[in-house]
Structures are given as C-alpha cells and as structure tokens.
Amino acid sequence: xxxxxxxxxxxxxxxxxxxxxxxxxxxxxxxxxxxxxxxxxxxxxxxxxxxxxxxxxxxxxxxxxxxxxxxxxxxxxxxxxxxxxxxxxxxxxxxxxxxxxxxxxxxxxxxxxxxxxxxxxxxxxxxxxxxxxxxxxxxxxxxxxxxxxxxxxxxxxxxxxxxxxxxxxxxxxxxxxxxxxxxxxxxxxxxxxxxxxxxxxxxxxxxxxxxxxxxxxxxxxxxxxxxxxxxxxxxxxxxxxxxxxxxxxxxxxxxxxxxxxxxxxxxxxxxxxxxxxxxxxxxxxxxxxxxxxxxxxxxxxxxxxxxxxxxxxxxxxxxxxxxxxxxxxxxxxxxxxxxxxxxxxxxxxxxxxxxxxxxxxxxxxxxxxx
Length: 370
Known about the structure:
Number of helices: 11
Order of helices and strands: EHHEHEHEHEHEEEHHEEHEEHEH
Distance between the termini: 19 Å
CATH architecture of the largest domain: 3-Layer(aba) Sandwich
Strand content: 5-15%
C-alpha cells in the first residue's frame, strides 16, 4: 500500500511514538490528578512536561496549553467560549474546514469571507481593510495551511489588520503544528491536532491560549481539583479540561515532539511536492489547484479531465493500491474558489515525512495508464 492521505491522519508513525505508546500503557495508564498515589503523580508530571514541550514550539508558557480530544473539539470550545452573539461579525477565509464553518453557522453569527484574488490567491488587502472598517468584527478564524490545497495563508498580515479593530485571532494549525515554523506575533489562540502533523494518536489535540483570552467554559465536569465547588475551577488550564485526560495520547505527543525536533520533515515534504508538481505537469488533461510557481506545503490537489474525483480515487485504490483522498475534504467554500465542483471536489495528495519519490513515481505511472 502507498499512502498519500496524511492530511487526514499521518498513517506511519515514528518508531519512537510506537514504542512510547507501549511504554505509556504500562507506566502512564493512570488518572492524573485523581489520586495521591505515586503512579498518578508520575502521570501528572508527564502531562505537565508535555505541555511544556508543546509550549516551547512557539515560545510560550505551559499553562496556556489546553488538551482536548480533537482539533474540532478545540474549535468548538473556542468558538462557543468566545460567547459570540448573533449580531457579531466573524471573518474566515475561503479555505476553512467545517470544524470552523459549521460551528460558526450553528452559533448563528454573521460569517464574512476574507477576499483573495482567484488568479494568484493573494490577499486583496485594500478590499479586506474596507470590509474590516465596515463590519468591525469580533474575531478572525483561519487555517495556517489549507487542508485541500496546501496553501499557506498570510495569517500574520490578516491578523495584523484585524488587530486594528481589536479582533480575537484564532489560527488552526492542524496541518502544520510541529513540522512548520509558526510566528505567533498576531495570534491569540492556536489549535493543534495530535494525529496529523504531530505524528501521534487519534483522540488527543488541544489549543494554546497565547493571549489569555477569557473564554466561557463550554465543557464542564470533574477536574480532580476544587471538587466541592459547583463552578469550574479558576486555575488554568484545568478550568477548560473537564473529564479524564488522555494520558496515553499525551505521551504520544511527548515522544513525537522529541522526534520532530530532530527531523527535517518540512524540507522533505517540500522536495516531495516539487517532484510531484514537476511530474504532474507532464500529464495531459491534468489540472493542478495552486497558483503559478507556488509550492504548496505538503498537500497538492488536482483533477483529471474525463473523470470525477472519486473515480480517480477508486481506480488508484482498487487497481494500484494507492490511497488518496477525494471529494470536498470537509472544506465546502474552497471548491467555489478553485472551481472544482464540476469534478465533485478534488483528488488530494498529502505527504508525510516518510513518503518517497519512488512512491510518487508509482502514482504518476498509474495516472498515465488512466
């Protein structure tokens, strides 16, 4: 099997993570903060060490790191925690995932789209500035890297403009955290996912409240502290961590960060994308969804004339044992922006640092046969 669906989840995990999970099942399979015995205290200490490692990736402090079960839960906690009203204005990009779009839709706020040029995908800065002046938004919520196209949004430019209107700026780093550098200069809250770019497990993720934005408690319950108080405790981060923490998953992130700090996965993925684009451009009738001369960040979407996206995916799977993602990728707005709905979405190739050029050659040969 050749696996090119790493934007959904990184399938191959570092051996350090696999070995760490086995170790954690024996040594950290305890409920941290719920017991006075040494094993529970040891597990609590490991969790705090992991917070520190996560915080160190963007040079902030560990108490700002909140663990959740997924990036989707993180975004729900943040969006509901902002206590948005129906009359509030929120800006998002055309590249956003349904974890943002559906949550904002359910809250009922006014959703506005940041304007990008459809030719070169550049931010239409003057138009955006005018919209900010007109709407005076409460928040801007955008992805660092698009899960459909691999496009890196100019988030600090967008957030910097928003700061003139006191916006709360939320950056979804599900596709980047741990592998790509992140400049937190204008970011208030950052979201990460364990099973994607952090090469760890499903069921563990979180967010970093860099600016200490006051959030309402969306999820409540036991924290192991201040148990006689019917309100959630005020101390951070336990105020936002109701329920038992996933210690096994947290240790998998701990091990993954140690591995990623020694790896050069960002450069490996860049070389893979460059090679893939060079080979794809040789195939007649193939459409690549990226601006001219742009190098996407580890993700490339395309379509093949004469096929729907899902037809390409089915053939690649059944005849060549190649796993790709097809369809709309839980990101509804971008397909209007890139005009891919006629193909029922896109065929997406998303790389891990473990993929190879030889695997790309197999994909290219399969597409040529089609």
